[in-house]
Amino acid sequence: MADLTWINEQARRTLYRVIPQLNEQFAGAGACNEVDWKTFIRRLERHFPRLFGLLYQLYGHQYDFFFRVENILATAARMWVARPQSLKELDACREAQPGWFHSEKMVGGVCYVDLFAGNLEGVKAKIPYFKELSLTYLHLMPLFKCPEGNNDGGYAVSSYREVNPALGTIEQLADLATELRQNGNSLVLDFIFNHTSNEHEWAAKAFSGYPEYEAFYRIYPDRAIPDRYEQTLREIFPDEHRGAFTYFPELHRWVWTTFHSFQWDLNYENPVVFSAMGEELLSIANIGVEVIRLDAVAFVWKKIGTTCENLPEAHMIIQAFNALARIAAPALLFKSEAIVHPDYVAQYIRPDECQLSYNPLLMALLWNSLATREVRLLRYSMQHRFAIDAGCAWVNYVRCHDDIGWTFSDEDANQLSINGYDHRKFLNSFFTGRFPGSYATGMPFQENPKTGDCRISGSCASLAGLEKAVKEETGVEVDLAIQRILMIHSIILSMGGIPLIYLGDEIATMNDYNYQDDPAKSGDSRWVHRPFTDWKKYERRNDKQTPEGKLFQALLKLVEIRKEHSVFASGENHETEVLDVGNDHVFGYVRSYFNEKVIVLANFSEREQTVSIDRISSMILPGKDLVSGEEYQPGEEIKLEPYRFIWLSI
Ligand code: GLC
Ligand code: GLC
Fold first, then answer.
1. Pairwise CA distance, residues 185 & 135, whole Å
2. Nearest residue CA, atom 3 of ligand 2?
3. Which residues form the catalytic set?
4. Is 195 helix (H, G, I), strand (E, B) or coil?
5. Buried b / exposed e across 156-174, counting CB within 10 Å, b at 16+?
6. Span from the CA of 240 to the centroid of ligand 1 (angstroms)
7. What is the pTM of this model?
């Protein structure tokens, strides 16, 4: 890499060559007011050197590099000028308070527009419900234009500028974003940037043989290169197609399709792709989106002889998008979706890359601990891997729209004499309900005969045992299942980071097998936990005699407690210390914020467990469980009933 001084000097020169042109084109033409323009130039001066350095590393060897960079700058200026005034105000506000997302008031929810509420207007009508649940962050699943039939739940985008007409229009989306913001809720959308659908205009043009557009994708005349890549690639959706490439007979070519055949991987080695996608990113930001979920981050760069996952250039691409956002839409935050080995998950989490990240390890290990009734791997992994940069936060969740992959580290497991391969087999057997005595009702996802690999689909409630308990009409089991659901939510609500509720889980939504009758969905078991929302079921949320009401009311109470105690926020001066409480069935940690301290304990077994206070804290005054109000004395033994958790304030 060229040295930093040289890069900074070139960045400076480039900038001062381009600024007069930008001045003339935008400020001079009266496209924006002078004060705003000065702010924009200041941001450029601050962040452009970083953007330039990254682009130089990625594309500096290409003959038209400077031309590309100038184009990217012009795009940034154009998109910023087009940014609505209210969002420019939000930009200023977020710059003044960059850690806003750490607040204890943050509570996230995620849903599909069509399944939850029919369309965008329907979602708007649900704002009172979002307020009831105290949501401050709403992730709407993919809603842009996509192919009819199977479109991977919208993860195959045909246009980033058009909403799927069945759901509404861009204007309605922008209007919804504003309305949500006025109600204290930030809109979160995906940026599906590893691939487009095969119906995207770029793909259609590539299909028709335009070389400029073929260069947007990775298209090969024969198997020579694909074969070389495949020697080291992981198969992601082996049910749909083996390997990573699809043959299109009409084209007589092979196209790189990591996921489905209709999802064509973009070629980021081409700077035109970076610049075109950068523009799409900013156009999504200008709708009023505040957090971008960067989909499938691991896969965006490929190199022969590697797994083509988590390569250094993938990070550079994301960092370059981050720098672009700091310049032209600074309110925007990035959340990474890296469902990979925890060492790699961690690499995406940096203030200048992704400020937020899913926490797939915590998610998977909560389920692991429920299956095994012990917390050793959870404890060990969290002790070593929970701490992240104070400028970043985890998004903690128990379920999402995807399968559960057992992405714990085999090295961590080895430390505890757990064999990763065998243990994953057990987990798959447990959660598909095949393991004798299992309470779970899940389904296998993408079972790979070649590697024995398998992931799990199923709703939170069904995996936690509610479906089986209801079917078998065992009241005790019903209560245990609800207590399990509540307990794992108590952890995502208190451990540090943004808790994210997969809407429906808060009223114990169970698996729905109707997807099997829909040809566009039947091949993908993830649809079992993506049902149409049953609003009759939601009506029972205030009736504590029903499972819905028991769970919902208890969960709401936890949310309220979280919101009232700044110790549950994250960021600077907030700590999470994971404890060995002397009982392998009980997960424990201390949250602290200066003098405020809360000890969280959670019993992962269906037997009563005890923990001695002396062992976990030098408590000198009585402590109080914020959930039940019960007091505990110094030196006392704490008894935890099956699946009981406490938030002990000391
Ligand atoms: C992400 C999505 C998943 C989708 C894949 C391909 O992992 O969460 O649902 O299948 O990307 O876009
Ligand atoms: C793989 C990918 C992840 C995606 C998932 C969808 O695990 O790593 O990004 O969410 O597949 O099932």
1. 6
2. 339
3. 295, 337
4. strand
5. bbbbbeebbeebbeeebbb
6. 14
7. 0.96
